[in-house]
Amino acid sequence: MTDPAALADAIHEEMSTVLIGLDDHVESLTIALLTRGHVLLEGVPGVAKTTLAHSFAQASGLLYNRVQMTPDILPADITGTSVYREPTGDFELRKGPVFSNLVVADEINRATPKTQSALLEAMAEGHVSIEGDTITLPDPFLVIATQNPIEMEGTFDLPEAQRDRFQLKLTVDLPSRANERALLDRVGDDPTFGPADVESVVDLDDIFAAREAVADVNVEAPVREYILELVRATRDHPDTRHGASPRGSQALLQTAKARAAIRGREYVLGDDVKAMLEPVLRHRLVLTTDAELSEVTPAEVLSDIASSVTPPSGKASEQAAVDGGEPEERVE
């Protein structure tokens, strides 16, 4: 299964046996998987954040581990440590839960900054250092961190450097009445249903092949310029103290490519970039004090930017697809 669209459809169809009303979130997790990204999930308790992550791991055939973050958890509890074995007189490496394909850091903002930073090297470099040794993590490697936006007592805000490591920030809202009714009906029929009922529908070879297909998606110069204009607008907006970093513009490019591939296209349109703008950039913005006092949100800032920056026409990209990648028309 080398086609990203087929892979995404297979994962979505299988996860729909457990999840209701989270189609966009499933697609976003698939985008992160195909672009080596990490995801921050935010929502109140009980909206299926952990179930979403676990079900995704099951459907994708990924080795899954969950870490419940608390103030007393230590970095070694995540990465692992060397344990002395008296019978042999040697130290043995005991790997932590980070040695998985998909790691859920549940309620990440309950861990201390020191423990939060233990994930930085893993998320950025794909390896960890234990007792002076550098050890490579499995591939694929995806961190999904969850946090509760309403319970702040005993929590530690993620520093900007940590937030910037997450490719996407997704919010999981309360379900609509219709979706919650469907959930009640499903629970009534089978109270034990959950992630364990999700079967693996793709394997690692499928994921690696789909990644290569995403990498080959064409991005025309006007679309690249559109990305730059959007990111630079976050830095110049009157309500932002700090806008998105170059890592943000790269994430916007890669996720737009994956979105295009999932929709069966070999080229990126401005609509792909615009659709990924908020989940990619909202957690990277630092608002001014006046904006915060006025209760302006990053989502509102990005909406203002999206409406003020003119997207490119899709005509050049479509022509490039016909001509094999060389556009006949450039839209400045």
From TrEMBL:
It comes from Haloarcula onubensis. It comes from the Archaea. Residues 35-176 form the AAA+ ATPase domain. Residues 297-332 are annotated as: Disordered. The lineage of its organism: Archaea, Methanobacteriati, Methanobacteriota, Stenosarchaea group, Halobacteria. This is MoxR family ATPase. Pfam families: AAA_3, AAA_lid_2. InterPro entries: AAA+_ATPase, ATPase_AAA-3, CbbQ/NirQ/NorQ/GpvN, ChlI/MoxR_AAA_lid, P-loop_NTPase.
